[in-house]
Amino acid sequence: MTVKVRRQRPRRRVFWALVAVLLADLLALSDTLAVMSVDLGSESMKVAIVKPGVPMEIVLNKESRRKTPVIVTLKENERFFGDSAASMAIKNPKATLRYFQHLLGKQADNPHVALYQARFPEHELTFDPQRQTVHFQISRQLQFSPEEVLGMVLNYSRSLAEDFAEQPIKDAVITVPVFFNQAERRAVLQAARMAGLKVLQLINDNTATALSYGVFRRKDINTTAQNIMFYDMGSGSTVCTIVTYQMVKTKEAGMQPQLQIRGVGFDRTLGGLEMELRLREHLAGLFNEQRKGQRAKDVRENPRAMAKLLREANRLKTVLSANADHMAQIEGLMDDVDFKAKVTRVEFEELCADLFERVPGPVQQALQSAEMSLDEIEQVILVGGATRVPKVQEVLLKAVGKEELGKNINADEAAAMGAVYQAAALSKAFKVKPFVVRDAVVYPILVEFTREVEEEPGVHSLKHNKRVLFSRMGPYPQRKVITFNRYSHDFNFHINYGDLGFLGPEDLRVFGSQNLTTVKLKGVGDSFKKYPDYESKGIKAHFNLDESGVLSLDRVESVFETLVEDSPEEESTLTKLGNTISSLFGGGTTPDAKENGTDTVQEEEESPAEGSKDEPGEQVELKEEAEAPVEDGSQPLPPEPKGDAAPEGEKATEKENGDKSEAQASVFRASVTRFGFRVPICTLSSLCGLLFP
């Protein structure tokens, strides 16, 4: 009997080897697909992840809790975070840092720095002369900036997420308060870089909450606009937001749900922390009263005792939300003396009476910015831990005039869930159902410049101009282009915040400098000398307000146009050069818009604002830079390179006058470089008002 042995063909072996390699690569890739979100609150943080097979889940910390205290204890060779640091606060209050987010992007003379020092006198804040900000002086050898401390916390949150996901994570979406300005947002980004995180987006916490609410109620959204008010009172601040939900038609995916931020109001210092500090002061007074006549020291002079009282005040506030009275008791408060005292809810409400009067303030601000009335609001939903205080709900219910307040959302985790949904949408590794997000600018930004004008023959004067780049409650992200048509030499312009009249006097002091930066342009005059025979189309400055609400100046360029003869047989060298540059910068096709992003705004002219009308002949254009082709078929602007201004070519367009078959307009752009940005207040590393690297 003959047995035939069939040998495997070499091609088949190569095929299966390639399949094995491909599967191994896919398995390795799946181990790095996870993304995370960090809902960074004043008192605690929530971390959420998305990974293959695990859609939107809250991370448990090492104590198996769903939220982690934002506390750091720093020693010479040790660092403690979360609950471990909270337990160290009693033993070593000076080295235990909390609520340090209130110092981000603040100069040393900011009222919030003085307020922080008054609230936590155990911390030594030292002045940083280079950055004009403050440091935490832990010891002679140890000092840390608030950004460095936040970087430690973000790195700890990353380790929690990686342990929970059992794989490395680098991409993250981080929530920030909606009232953070440019300096504060850049401070958070700097802290994230220290932690080794790639920030996909800084999302406003109110927007993240609204997104979470909409995602889980997608079926309830239709073509009829629904106006929902979210009232978020957390530990450190209060924010009121009016959101409109509606089905809209998109170019990429047809009819999709959309949320649009219509109005925002806030109070930077109204929150649970201030209530706890009032309670702490009340308990300290009761303890001193009990020891009166014993020649005892004031308990306020003992940092450890005050740390114990603050912890007890936090517990007392929570208990009084459900009970009419409660017994505060601390064993060995000071000098081995126990403390015990009864506190009623009525006493607590009297201590915080002025705080409760401020509860309706953010509601009125939000309605005013949205230009809406309470009758147009369908529902008011409570968010944040401090809204559990009965008196807050009572005052708010009276202010909004509704039958009841909505409590159909997880007040603690909604922002974290909305942020991680956005992280999955921004990540290339996941496919999520589209949900259009249209966030709104809180602080308007404008450009100011001064130029010499001739009012009469021989009479010259200086004229100051203002042009709004990004208006209040306008959508972002978006790009804007401002064109200076009357300059043929080097000049400067200023980027400032716009009208902040909606802020009170105290909020303006906390806000800080209203000047963002001064831009000095060099090379304008040289470009005109280089192209004397070409027609100038102005100096174009391209601005970008990105998804994180951070402003940048992408590039500045001088644009010239001329007529060249176009031979039917052969294209001219100049035309070839213009077309080649356009194709290199992607002029022919446009990338697909992200599904969870702001709708692209077509290029259009805006009317001047915040300044007098231009004089005859003055032509300062302000345009929105579109990512999709505009209706007239002109070329879209190419992606902006980072760094200094780069040369750019535009596709040739036909001229109306003359023979169209022979004459064609070619556009050339001469590079205009930036140098030596002068920041009036802060140095290059300061973050306070600094815009450009």
TrEMBL record:
Compartments, record wording: Endoplasmic reticulum lumen
Transmembrane intervals: none
GO BP, sorted A to Z: endoplasmic reticulum unfolded protein response; negative regulation of hypoxia-induced intrinsic apoptotic signaling pathway
CDD domains listed in its UniProt record: ASKHA_NBD_HSP70_HYOU1 (cd10230)
Residue ranges with Polar residues bias: 574-583
Comp. bias regions, Basic and acidic residues: 611-626, 641-662
PANTHER family xref list: HSC70CB, ISOFORM G-RELATED (PTHR45639), HYPOXIA UP-REGULATED PROTEIN 1 (PTHR45639:SF3)
Organism: Mandrillus leucophaeus (Drill)
Keyword Nucleotide-binding in record: yes
Region annotated Disordered, chain positions: 564-664
GO molecular function annotation: ATP binding; ATP-dependent protein folding chaperone
Keywords: ATP-binding, Chaperone, Endoplasmic reticulum, Nucleotide-binding, Signal
Pfam families with a match to the protein in the record: HSP70
Family the UniProt entry places it in: Belongs to the heat shock protein 70 family.
Cellular component, GO, one term: endoplasmic reticulum lumen
Signal peptide range in chain numbering: 1-34
Name this polypeptide is given: Hypoxia up-regulated protein 1
